Structure formats: C-alpha cells, structure tokens
Amino acid sequence: MKKTLTFLFILTVSLISCEKDELEFEKELKDGFCIVANDRVVLSHDDFEYYDYSTHLIYLKDNNSFVDDIESIGEFKVFADKKEIYVGQTVPGFHSFLPSGPIISTHPSGYGDYIIPIELIQIIDTLGNVTPDLREDERIINALKSFNQFHAGLSCEIKSIQYLSPNDVSVELNLKNNDSFSYYYLDPDKMGINLFHYFTNGLFITDFSTHKSYTHKIETVSADPWNTWKKDWLSIINGNENKVVTIIYDNFEDVPKGQYKATFEFPGLSFQVDKNDIKQNNGQIWLGEINMMKDIKIE
User: What's the pLDDT at 4?
Assistant: First the structure.
C-alpha cells in the first residue's frame, strides 16, 4: 500500500509539473505568426516586418538576424493565432541529406541574415504527383493579415510550350503580381538568356515513370563578380499586373512522343541583395524562386 501511494504521489507531481510547463509555454505564444522550438517562442510578429507568401521568406526587423534567432533550433513548429499548423526541421545548407517537408536551411541559408527562408522538400511519385505543401494554409494567411504582415508576392505558371521545330522550343510563362505595389524581377530579355540561366535550371520535360528528363543545352554565364547584381537586369511588374515572359531554346534535346511533366523554376535574386537595397524608388526587389509544373503531350 505504501508503494502504491508513493507511485501515485510521484505521478501526480509529474502531471502537475507537465501541466505547469505547458501553461508556461502557452503564455509565451502570441497571436499572429509564431515559430516555436525547444519549448520557447523563437519568432513572433514582433520580430519581423512581413512574410512573402509566394516564396515563404520572412523579412526580419533591423535588430534581429537569422543567425542569432534560428541557427541551431533543430525541430521547429509553426503556429498561427496560437494554433499549431505544421512541424519542420532546420538543416545545415551543406548537409547531404534533406528530410521531406518544411525546412529552414542554415549556415549558409542562401539569403542574407535578415531573412528566414522556410523551404519545402517535396516527394514526387512516378505519376508526377507531389506531397502537399504544409506551408500553404489559410490560417497562416489570416494570422499574418491581422498584423499587416502578409505579402502575396509573385506567382508564375507555364502558359504554353510550343515546338517550333524538333529542337526549337518556346515556353511562355505568365508572371503575376498579387500585391498592390510594384516588384522588380529578373528579366531574361534584359540580362540575356545565358545569365538568366545562371540563376535557374530552366525548362525540363520529364517522364516521372522512368525518371528520364530532357532539357536545353544553354551555356550559362556567371555574374561578375559572382556575388553581385545589377539593376539593369531587372524590370518592374506593377501592382496586380500580369506579364507574359517568353523564353526560346534553339538547341533543346530530342523528346520522344508521349505524355510528360514540364517543370520550370522562375528565379529571383537572393544573397546578393543587401536589406537596404530591397526597397527601390518605384517598388521593391522580389527575392526567391517559384517552381512550376504542367502536363504536356509531345506529338
């Protein structure tokens, strides 16, 4: 009987302790967007200016840095208005293994210390189907909007792919600004197709059942120096505007007849841009990348 009472006492104390820890943790949570790790809030709406939802980049306030806040937190949880939305992992940028799902790349991240990038590692099956994007959640949008921290950013889709000849391929992209203010974006016509493909792999046509891909043979040209950018490369897309971006490949690989998935990554600048340069006179520079996929038939 004595042992039973002792066990019950220890169990009761343990439950009370867990409840206390849980209550203390809940007290730290705030409305809006939060990142939680190691039983503490490491990022709340007080710490960042806005969240670009098109690329899932969090732009920190001046006194905060990526390295100090996020570098070694391991597993993290995203909350919106005090409700848990998803779980992710921080992964060193040089790591050879990447877990599926949301990740924060660290050391290096590919962006300046004023940005926290929440990336996504998706699994694509043999039919070309991809795992759901847990970052895309209406509750996150609403939480960000409640503190005026939501930027819709740019979206892009493959409008059409046309074969002008067996090796001449034209791809039309529909670029859209979903915000009311203007963005600067990388313009392949201004910077040239060779430099543009330094920032993107460009068009791929893939049969996911065989994992066979076909692409262009463009020789890329690096920025000089490699870590710089020029405003001459950029064009403006006004608020709520649509633009068609056309890229023509004149030496594309031969693709047999059949059903395929066309993929394209529309690029933006990243680590090259200092925080002070983001906002320009007529708009702000859009950073990040947009991945697109479209079903096509080669006849």
Answer: 44
